[in-house]
Write a structure and sequence with these properties.
The complex is a heterodimer.
Chain A lengths: L3 H9 L1 H6 L1 H4 L8 H26 L4 H31 L11 H31 L6 E3 L3 E3 L8 H36 L23
Antiparallel strand pairs in A: 1-2
Helix pairs in contact in A: 4-5, 5-6, 6-7
Chain B lengths: L1 H24 L2 E5 L4 E8 L4 E6 L2 E7 L8 E6 L4 E2 L3 H8 L12 E12 L2 E10 L2 E15 L2 E11 L12 E15 L1
Antiparallel strand pairs in B: 1-4, 1-11, 2-3, 2-11, 3-6, 4-5, 5-7, 7-8, 8-9, 9-10, 10-11
Chain lengths: ~220, ~190
């Protein structure tokens, strides 16, 4: 793993980051710690959720397992929705780092659209899942992590509405998965073919306003 | 006003006479009639829950009004006959996630002890067998009506489902299954 040294240095400077607001927020050139944590937390949850969503459809011959997977899927979905809304608020209230030097206008535009679409999908896909639970005649409660009872959306219940939302949910989710794969491919291409540091921006918080004092070793 | 009181008093006397009759007349053995109803409900978080009933069952009870402790009941029901109004819920209940009707086609209850606890009611202890697991459970029966050779008992009781290997869905759905039955007996 080439990323290890950077991660280690991040760890070493952790105390400084918490004291230095500039490292929490984005700068014009790089991402702050909050944006980085949002990105990776949601990325891991969202990709895991696509796998979990697939499994809920592949385990019909084990109804008990299927039921439990559905409840985990719903819990993680509500967590993603919460994180994605917070992330949207954070993104709108801060700076958006510019593309790295050497990025063409069309590349920059494509990246911008992909980033916006992915962020939108991390909100829309959970919302459509919520709509499935809200329209299903089964009326299974949404009890996130067996802790938080989430009310249903005010939608009419019917088998048809449930099937419609299920289809929309699946199409958006798998399309998002493909887009996320393209996004990851582009980041890897930038990092390892162009060697322009694009991927590393998502691992190292902004520090262009000057590093804080390093703690004594 | 006086007239109404008189009628009420008259009815009370008739009811008391009828009750006095029950003690001796009801003795006998009864088959549980198909017109009986075995309903259950399982609550869920946020209110509501699953309401269902079983449509196929059979059984009999023996009533000894003079010595209630000698009374007994046994009942056998087919969990495959569960009805909830929602086919997907019914299929789930029939599957090995809950009743596992393929491996365990019947649920049985046999009383082991009947104790009178009121003029028309009794506590029934017995063994309930479901999914191959037998446990002691308690129900409460109240005489609900009689008509010639037939009589009806309203029977209620709460059963924890997790000990029978049916804990799926807890705590989303309550661990407690509330039974509400109207058992109609036809004298043999």
């Amino acid at each position: 793993m080439r990323l290890r040294p950077k991660a280690a240095s991040l760890n070493r400077n952790r105390a400084v980051y918490w004291k230095n607001d500039a490292m929490l927020r984005n700068s014009r050139l790089s991402y702050g710690l909050v944006a980085i944590l949002f990105h990776w937390a949601i990325a891991i949850l969202f990709l895991g959720q696509i796998g979990l969503g697939y499994l809920t459809q592949a385990t019909a011959d084990d109804p008990r397992l299927q039921f439990n997977l559905y409840q985990w899927h719903k819990s993680v979905g509500f967590l993603i929705l919460l994180l994605a809304l917070l992330r949207l608020g954070w993104a709108l209230s801060g700076a958006k780092p510019k593309p790295v030097a050497g990025t063409s206008v069309s590349e920059a535009l494509a990246a911008r659209i992909a980033h916006s679409t992915l962020l939108a999908m991390t909100i829309l896909v959970p919302l459509t899942g919520w709509a499935i639970a809200s329209t299903s005649p089964l009326m299974i409660p949404s009890f996130a992590f067996n802790l938080v009872l989430v009310p249903d959306l005010p939608l009419a219940r019917s088998d048809e509405a449930e099937a419609l939302w299920s289809n929309i949910h699946a199409v958006l989710a798998y399309a998002s998965g493909i887009l996320a794969a393209a996004h990851a491919g582009a980041a890897l291409y930038h990092q390892f073919a162009r060697r322009d540091g694009t991927l590393m921006r998502m691992f190292t918080p902004s520090r262009n306003t000057g590093p804080g004092k390093r703690p004594a070793p | 006003m006086f007239k109404i009181s008189l009628i009420a008093a008259g009815l009370l006397i008739c009811a008391a006479a009828a009750h006095a009759q029950t003690l001796s007349d009801l003795r006998g053995r009864y088959a549980i009639a198909p017109s009986s109803q075995i309903a259950f409900s399982v609550g869920q978080v946020g209110g509501g829950g699953i309401n269902g009933r079983f449509s196929r069952f059979s059984g009999a009870f023996e009533l000894h009004p003079d010595n209630v402790a000698r009374s007994n009941i046994n009942i056998e029901l087919e969990p495959a006959s569960v009805q909830t109004g929602e086919p997907r819920v019914e299929n789930f209940l029939r599957s090995d996630a809950v009743f596992d009707v393929a491996a365990h086609p019947t649920i049985t209850f046999r009383s082991t002890r009947v104790r009178q606890d009121g003029p028309n009611s009794a506590v029934i202890e017995g063994t309930l067998t479901a999914r191959g697991i037998t446990r002691r459970e308690t129900f409460h029966a109240t005489l609900a009506g009689r008509d010639g050779r037939a009589l009806a008992f309203h029977v209620v009781g709460d059963v924890f489902r997790s000990p029978y290997g049916m804990d799926v869905g807890t705590p989303l759905y309550s661990n407690v299954v509330h039974f509400d039955m109207m058992l109609r007996g036809q004298r043999r």
